[in-house]
Amino acid sequence: MDLNRRCFLKYAASGMIAAGALPAIGCSGLRRKDLTGLLEQENYVHGLTKTELDILYMASLAPSGHNAQPWTVKIVSPEKWIIGSDKTCWLPAADSDNFNCLLSIGAFIENLVIAAGSNGYKADVQITAKDPFDTEIAIIHFSRQRRNGELVKRIKNRRMTKIPYRKKEILAKDIEYLTHHSPEHICYFPKGSPQSTYIEEGTLECNRIQDARQDVLEETAKWIRWSDEDAKKYRDGLTPEAMSIHGVTGWVARHFFTRESLFNKMNREMYLDMVEELLENHGGWIVFTGKDSSVSSMIDSGRRFERLWLKARAKNIAIQPFSQLLEEAPGATVGIKGIEDDVHFIMRVGYIDSYPDPVSLRKPVSWFVEA
């Protein structure tokens, strides 16, 4: 990697400190916990109980591409909710089939089911959508049951983190722990295996392809919230903190970067250098599959994906989804030996020393719920 590109922001920030342009403190960007009090006020929806609001907020802590949060909820009655897809949060350039959107909504539904269970409700899910671009996805029917809070505490702590991952194969007992709920649809390939090498090479090439696509760059730029003001205004997208741009470097990004910064040649080269480093440092790949790419199958994969992610922290296993291979060369996944079903998710995994707190922002419940 070119040292000048790698260290550009670091040196720029250091120069500004020397010139007295940066404050000595206050380098942290806006994080989820910074908005806790404000969220408590804004989450209010007329007609909903505190329990229902809590279930909806916990569901919204699901992951999504660019943190776009593409879900909606229509409250028909206390016993019947309709889960929908928000067109304004779709990613047509990178996710032209809307499959990633469905996977995210599947994760949202899984969180909702878990949160409902912790509050004494059974949530039965009926998938109604037939097309990935339908805006009504599922109906949830609620009934009373005994409380079950086994996983709900993990929802708040789920976090995507990039580096550093150890170059250590995930132990068989840990893979069994992560995948036992659906082993037929989840495969692990350790670093150094032919499948791992194939995924690494394909992912790097597809990142280069996307880096040259103007529509993808423009779409990504739309969802980056460089400033704290934009982060607080929109409560979605990718903040510097969420992109692991911390400290003084993060201060520079928040105060001097704009939407156009993503199109800067040096920044794009730095991004590709970072991808190469990520693909070198990990403990392998987890691949999620399904019998087909129907709406119901994609939703199920999203639910399995979230269930696995909620378990990972207990084993100090970090997860980073890498979807570029599926977005740019979906047919190439047939080259992953040992997989016969459709590939829905590809994730880089690895052990880490400690888990950081979650930082990605969330919209208030009142912004995505119709009661």
Average of per-residue pLDDT values: 90
| Assigned CATH class of the largest domain | Alpha Beta
SSE topology string: HHHEEHEEHHEHHHHHEHEHEHE
What is the CATH H-level superfamily of the largest domain?
NADH Oxidase
Report the portion of residues in β strands.
15-25%
CATH topology of the largest domain, which one? NADH Oxidase
Morphology call:
globular
Q: Give the tally of β-strands.
A: 9
Uncertain runs with pLDDT below 50, 5 residues or more? 1-25
Number of domains: 2
Work out the helicity level.
40-55%
- Alpha plus pi helix count: 14
User: Termini distance?
Assistant: 52 Å
Write down the Rg: 20 Å
- Which strands sit side by side, in order, in the main sheet? 3-4-2-1-9
The description of the largest β-sheet is: 5 strands, mixed
